[in-house]
Specification:
L-amino peptidase D-ALA esterase/amidase, alpha+beta, three-stranded antiparallel β-sheet, single chain
C-alpha cells in the first residue's frame, strides 16, 4: 500500500503546535484538482465550500486545509493561500494568481492552550512542508497537524475520553489511487471491524482502556443530554488520481460518509461538524462508483489509523501508548 504522499499530483504536509495541542494539515494539488464537499454534521466550521457546489463555475481547487482551533483555525487557510501565491500557484487572473483553498476545522480548544490556534504562519508552514518534503518520506500520522488536539469518546465527559489524531490510508487498483487524510475529533467511539473499540470513552478517568461497545452504547443513551455542544468534528479529504466531474466528486464524498457511519459511534450528530472533501487530479479514467467504494475503504482505514497511531497526551491515554 502506498503512502498518501505517493499519490500523483498531491503534496501533503503539517504544521504542529505540540505544546498548545493544535495544528493544521495542508493537502496541495499545484496543478489544480476537481473538488467537492459533503457536510453532514450539525456544527461545521468551513471555508470556500459554496464554490465546490456542482453548479458553481470554479473548477479547480489548489488546496484543502484541515485545521484545529475551531473557527479561529480557518485563518490557516489564508496563510496557505498566501504561500501558494508566493510559489506561483493559483488561478491566473491576469493581475495575479488566486489560489482556491477550501478548509474545515475541528474544535480542540479544550486540549492544550485554548488561546493558541493555527494562523497565517502555520497555514504557510503546512504548505511549505507539503511542497518541500521528500515524497518518499511517509507522512507522519497520529499527534500531528490537524490531529494534534483531537480526542474521541467524549459522551461521558472530556476527562473520560481518549486521545485521537490524524490518520491516512491509500487503496490501489492498478493505476488508480484513492487515499484519505482524516482528523478524528468525534464525540463517539472509534470501532474496528468486528466491533472492538479502538479508542473511546473510558469507565473511569484512572482507567486507560475504553468501555466495550455494548457498555458504551448503554452509557451513551443515559449521557446524551450532557453532550458538549459543537465541540466535536471529524474532517477528511479523499484524494484520487481519477478523472471526475464535480457532480461525480460530490457523489464520492457522499459515499465516503459510509466510512464515518461504520467506524464512529455515534456520528453526524448535532454536536459534530463532520465534513468530507474530495479532490480528483484527473490522471486516470475510472468509474465513479468504483472510486467511491475505494474511498469508503480508504477513509475507514484512515479513521482507524488516526486512533491507532495516537499517543497519550494532555492527561489522556492513546491507543499507541505514551
Amino acid at each position: 500500500m502506498a503512502d498518501v504522499r505517493q499519490i500523483p499530483g498531491f503534496f501533503i504536509g503539517h504544521a504542529t503546535l505540540e505544546e498548545a495541542g493544535t495544528g493544521c494539515t495542508a493537502i496541495v494539488c499545484p496543478e489544480g484538482a476537481v473538488g467537492a464537499v459533503d457536510v453532514r454534521g450539525g456544527a461545521p466550521a468551513t471555508r470556500e465550500t459554496d464554490l465546490l457546489r456542482p453548479e458553481e463555475t470554479v473548477q479547480s481547487v489548489h488546496a484543502v486545509v484541515l485545521s484545529g482551533g475551531s473557527a479561529f483555525g480557518l485563518t490557516a487557510a489564508s496563510g496557505a493561500a498566501e504561500e501558494l501565491e508566493r510559489r506561483g500557484i493559483g488561478l491566473d487572473m491576469g493581475v495575479c494568481r488566486v489560489p482556491i483553498v477550501s478548509a474545515a476545522c475541528v474544535f480542540d480548544l479544550t486540549v492544550g492552550d485554548a488561546l493558541t490556534r493555527p494562523g497565517l504562519a502555520e497555514g504557510a508552514a503546512a504548505v511549505a512542508d507539503a511542497l518541500d518534503a521528500d515524497p518518499e518520506t511517509p507522512l507522519p500520522t497520529g499527534n500531528v497537524g490537524a490531529g494534534t488536539g483531537c480526542t474521541v469518546g467524549k459522551f461521558l465527559g472530556p476527562e473520560r475520553s481518549m486521545k485521537s489524531g490524524l490518520g491516512t490510508a491509500v487503496i490501489e487498483a492498478g493505476p488508480l489511487f484513492v487515499g484519505a487524510v482524516c482528523a478524528v475529533n468525534a464525540v463517539g467511539d472509534v470501532i474496528a471491524p468486528g466491533g472492538a473499540v479502538v479508542a473511546g470513552a473510558r469507565p473511569d478517568p484512572a482507567v486507560a482502556t475504553p468501555l466495550p461497545l455494548d457498555a458504551a452504547l448503554g452509557a451513551m443513551a443515559s449521557a446524551a443530554a450532557d453532550l458538549t455542544p459543537r465541540a466535536n468534528t471529524t474532517i477528511s479529504c479523499i484524494i484520487t488520481n481519477a478523472t471526475l466531474t464535480k457532480p461525480q466528486a460530490l457523489r464520492v464524498a457522499q459515499m465516503g460518509s459510509d466510512a464515518y457511519a461504520t467506524t464512529i459511534v455515534p456520528t453526524h450528530t448535532s454536536m459534530d461538524g463532520d465534513t468530507i472533501f474530495c479532490l480528483a487530479s484527473g490522471r486516470v479514467g475510472a468509474e465513479q462508483d468504483v472510486v467511491g467504494l475505494l474511498a469508503v475503504q480508504a477513509l475507514s482505514a484512515a479513521i482507524g489509523d488516526a486512533c491507532a497511531k495516537a499517543k497519550g497526551a494532555f492527561g489522556l491515554p492513546g491507543a499507541a501508548g505514551e
